[in-house]
Design goal:
EC 2.1.2.10, aminomethyltransferase activity, globular, GcvT/YgfZ_C, 382 residues, 22% helix
Length: 382
């Protein structure tokens, strides 16, 4: 696989990062202690490079109608300035990716897929635009992933830190920004002021922001954020802490909780699928049939949270047991740094998904006790 490097790779090297391959990208796994990085995000703020994510612009008179056809959600119902979590599925109802779509204008949308799926999603949207045009959709799909960096500041002090780079007259753009919304904000860095797209979104369970910036300006913005933070206030954080944070927040990771073989209903994402929206969309018939058949409700398996009653953690692909019989499989699991006990997400037979249900995880031949709990494991105090 070809190795890709973000525009911030040299910044990570200067900070002594340990790197790992993620979706074909060389990304910082951690800088020093993944545990310290995790706690920094929960208590203060963490700084993340998310430039491996994709950015696909969908524009044109029929952009909203096209995205209603291409994705499972009702994207046309979004107000300008808002964001929406959705899925792109295949005709069989399998999940190609989960993604966030930002409405930047009446005819302008930004679709942000996951790193490993960015090219696949961009290709699928372009292909669907081609087939849609035969049906009358007037839309353009532009993959801007190679030119765009994404920097996240996540944690309770995220807002206060960002405000130091924004002119006082524009502070309301940041403080007034709602969750799952985005706005263009003037940032002062690199000796100049530049309007950047700022989204109040994240993957940590904390308040936080994601900033879209051109590759050429990414290092200057990163350096400015590090420079204006007070001692110990903003900690560069890698993929290891990002994974433990998102697990505590009960957020699915594609390739773990979500896949082509799975379906939205089993994953607890049924509300994301707008079966009632007008017109057809890719995967609609298959998803309607799955729902009718009781997927994730009365048949098959459903994604649940598992709380460890002992000290040992379950890991991905470990079997879940009931009375010694296999009734499920762990998708993600590790000790929770915030909560102090092991947590896991797992697909479990629907009859065993009630909170409080006692189950075991097979930890390499030894049954370790867990119990079903409601997701998320962790919810921040507002």
């Amino acid at each position: 696989m070809t190795e890709n490097y973000t525009a911030l790779y040299e910044e990570h090297k200067k900070l002594g990062a340990s790197f790992t391959d993620f979706g074909g990208w060389q990304m910082p796994l951690k800088y020093s202690s993944e545990l310290a990085e995790h706690h920094a995000v929960r208590k203060s703020a963490g700084l993340f490079d998310l430039s491996h994510m994709g950015e696909v612009w969908v524009t044109g008179p029929d952009a909203a109608a096209f995205l209603d056809y291409a994705l499972v959600g009702k994207i046309s119902a979004m107000a300008i300035g808002k964001a929406k979590y959705s899925l792109i599925c295949n005709e069989d109802g399998g999940i190609i990716d989960d993604l966030i779509t930002y409405r930047r204008g009446e005819q302008k949308f930004l679709v942000v897929p996951n790193a490993g799926n960015a090219k696949v999603v961009a290709g699928a949207l372009a292909e669907r635009a081609g087939s849609a045009q035969e049906g009358g959709f007037n839309v353009t799909v532009q993959d801007a992933s190679a030119d765009t960096s994404l920097i996240a500041v996540q944690g309770p002090k995220a807002e206060a830190i960002l405000l130091r780079l924004v002119p006082a007259a524009q502070h309301e753009l940041v403080t007034g920004l709602k969750y799952y919304a985005a706005v263009d904000v003037p940032f002062m860095f690199g000796g100049a002021s530049q309007d950047l797209l700022l989204a109040r979104t994240g993957y940590t369970g904390e308040d936080g922001f994601e900033i879209f910036v051109a590759n050429d300006d990414a290092a200057a913005l990163w350096q400015a954020l590090v420079a204006i933070a007070e001692d110990g206030e903003l900690t560069p954080a890698g993929l290891a802490s990002r994974d433990s944070l998102r697990l505590e927040a009960g957020m699915p990771l594609y390739g773990n909780e979500l896949s082509l073989e799975g379906d939205p209903f089993a994953a607890g994402l049924g509300p994301v699928v707008a079966l009632s929206k007008e017109g057809d969309f890719i995967g609609k018939a298959a998803l309607a049939a799955k729902k009718e058949a009781g997927a994730g409700a009365t048949t098959g398996r459903k994604l649940v949270g598992l709380k460890g009653l002992g000290r040992r953690a379950g890991r991905g692909h470990y079997p879940v047991l009931k009375d010694g019989n296999v009734v499920g499989e762990v998708t993600s699991g590790q000790p929770s740094p915030t909560l102090g006990y092991p947590v896991a997400m797992a697909y479990v037979d629907v009859a065993l998904t009630e909170p409080g249900t006692a189950l075991d995880i097979d930890l390499r031949g030894k049954a370790e006790p867990f119990e079903v709990v409601a997701l998320p494991f962790y919810k921040r105090q507002k």
